[in-house]
Design a protein that fits this description.
124 residues; mainly beta; 7-stranded mixed beta sheet; 4-stranded antiparallel beta sheet
């Protein structure tokens, strides 16, 4: 069984930064691509960023490109999301997920394990 636990969320002013972490249990973490999603109140969950199993390939939603950076440390079974220049519209619950599918980032069915989420609130 795989468990994903996010941390690092909180309240920050617009223009500030946060770094989210997602710690994974299990010995196969380094074999899978990982994704970050978010869900704002009243909205559907949306893809934010993804990283390949090696860390050599990344993908970002247009709304966060240039502001967010996804990375991973396979020795620590952890994936990170560095969020800079935060905006009020970034307010959401952020989730990490393990991608079991070979390719593609946007579709939730391509992810088999999800964390419980961490709240990020950006004040104006």
């Amino acid at each position: 069984q795989v468990q994903l636990v996010e941390s690092g969320g909180g309240l920050v002013q617009a223009g500030g930064s946060l770094r989210l972490s997602c710690a994974a249990s299990g010995r196969t973490f380094s074999s899978y691509a990982m994704g970050w999603f978010r869900q704002a109140p009243g909205k559907e969950r949306e893809f934010v960023a993804g990283i390949s199993w090696s860390g050599g390939s990344t993908m970002y939603a247009d709304s966060v490109k240039g502001r967010f950076t996804v990375s991973r440390d396979n020795a620590k079974n952890t994936v990170y999301l560095q969020m800079n220049s935060l905006k009020p519209e970034d307010t959401a619950v952020y989730y990490c997920a393990r991608r079991w599918y070979d390719s593609g980032w946007l579709d939730e069915y391509k992810y088999d394990y999800w964390g419980q989420g961490t709240q990020v609130t950006v004040s104006s």
